[in-house]
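Take a look at the protein record below and tell me what you see:
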Amino acid sequence: MVSKTNSQSKRREIERQALQIVLDAGEKGILQSDLWRSLGTTSREGSRISLRLERRKLIKRVKELNEERWTYRLYAIKRSVNLDSIIDCPCLICELSDKCDEAGAVSPIKCSNFTKWLLTPFRRRSPET
């Protein structure tokens, strides 16, 4: 007999795998049928996984007509982390970062370097590709 915690842990793992597949699909998303095939599950289980992820606001499901059949395309709501947006943040090399606190004498609210960095448009901060 499989314990409840063991089955919950298996369910969480397959949901984690499903979310990773959707994240890897990027902006184009992935068809729900392609997701359950990738996971090696049935269409019923794939639908349930998609619904659970949608309820947790990790993905969005968009109805789509594909090969004359209605299905859903899945898109990740949470995007993968990319450090390019913060790589030149002055806090990363600030000598006072260990003393910096919202209520302290050294504060991100009062820091002119941090304010200038925040007000610089991201496209100018990021390296040209």
